[in-house]
């Protein structure tokens, strides 16, 4: 992980990858990706594709399914984002966050909130293994982005705000998220 992200603290985690999954917008919204490829965009159809893969697998897609049916089939923008953030089907599948976190939202998110200014992210990201869940920072980030999107009156602008987020603490404050928030 590069020093710039580390120096922003755990709050930077909230939208690294999970923001693209949190978006639940109408078709044909294009959101710019800040990546090496000029003009790359993530399309909301990428979000729809993720949920189709997830639902078709009963909420437990394999690493191969995620890679083949979601990442490899995604827009150029999604592929650029995955490449830039080192996201693979295996890393997504091993996180198993949602299933492991159900019923523990308050506990996990209270710990996350207490760590919000830490620069050591090892308790929250890049810690998944095939035998243990990890990367709960992405799961919390997904929930923060989801709260932001739900509370936004303009959903298209909310997508742009999520993808262009530059100030994690201001974004968190505007999201309306708090540990244990009820999100269905």
UniProtKB/TrEMBL annotation:
Signal keyword on record: yes
Species name: Luteimonas notoginsengisoli
Superkingdom of source: Bacteria
Leader sequence segment: 1-25
Keywords, ordered alphabetically: Signal
Keyword Signal: yes
Protein name from the UniProt record: DUF885 domain-containing protein
InterPro entries per UniProt: GldB-like
